[in-house]
Amino acid sequence: MALIQSLCMLAIFSDALVCRQFAMKNNTTTTTTTASTSTLTSTIANNTNPLAPSRLESIKNSYSELNLLSKTNPSDFIFDFDKAVTGVSTGTGGRTVAATAANFPGLINHGIAMTIGFLGPCGINLPHTHPRATEINFSVDGDFQVGFFQENSASFVMNEIHKNQVAVFPKGAIHFEQNLNCTPATFVAAFNSEDPGVLTIGNSFFGSLPATVVGASLGGLNITTIEDIRVHLVQNPSVGIAECRQRCGL
Fold first, then answer.
1. Where is the signal peptide (predicted)?
2. Cα–Cα distance measured from residue 210 to residue 151, given in angstroms and rounded to the nearest whole number
3. Which end of the chain is more exposed for a tag (fewer CB within 10 A), N or C?
């Protein structure tokens, strides 16, 4: 009788051990499957979205040009300014479209970028700076008043450029492009950085700095007045100078 009981206990123990091992194996399989599914989902997302941050970061971290090319597709080296949905700024004075490393993977690690300005009649690309790039600006089909201010104690530089002429704006200089015509005009701006950055002066000064600091910078201007100014800040590009608007009946 004791022998029979011992054999029964052994059988029960063996079955429990087998069940436990099976459960552990099944759990490992489930975990592996879940991890694989997550990786696959991530891979599909990156392939679906060519501007996924993880994909851009991977291209950026390439150890050689050949390694970079192995991570890209032919379409990464083409950018359509007419169909762009990122890098676009639209205001009452027209539209600018920027191609940078953030929305054009083919620029990554190549040190260049470009913006096209489609300005309406009297449109102005508001005073701004590019903190990381010098700009060369080409007039495609218009007459532009252009100017820049480089730094304290420097002289303000003002010019007009016409079709097939270019202007240069040094790195970090405050500059602008004003369409002088009553018809639309286009410019092409090229930069010696894939990430030139942009800081629009009026919007950043009045819209981003604390009102108390802005007031102190303007001789103690009260906060209420500054808040009133903020309400009237415009999106770039805007309709430009009064002389042009009056001349063109705008």
1. 1-16
2. 23
3. N
The tens digit of pLDDT for each residue in 21-46 reads 545 555 554 444 444 444 444 444 44
143 close to 248: Cβ distance less than 8 angstroms = no
CB 100 within 8 A of CB 194: yes
- For the residues 93-110, what does the mean pLDDT come to? 98
Q: Is the pTM of this model over 0.85?
A: no
Q: What is the pLDDT at residue 1?
A: 52
Taking only the tens place, the pLDDT of each residue in 216-240 is: 999 999 989 999 999 999 999 999 9
Pick the closest to residue 168 from 147, 185, 186 (CA basis): 147
Annotate 181-202 with DSSP letters as a single string: SSS-EEEEEEESSS----EEHH
CA distance 79 to 57: 19
- Where exactly are the structural domains of the chain? 53-248
Phi, psi of 25 (to 5 degrees): -65, -40
Q: Answer whether CATH 3.40.50.1980 is correct for domain 53-248.
A: no
Instruction: Find residue 137's DSSP bridge partners.
Output: 167, 189
Q: Give just the sign of the alpha carbon dihedral 102, 107, 109, 112.
A: negative
Rounded Cα distance, 217 and 123, in Å: 29
How far, in Å, CA of 187 to CA of 136, rounded? 10
CB 124 within 8 A of CB 243: no
- Classify residue 161 by its DSSP letter: E
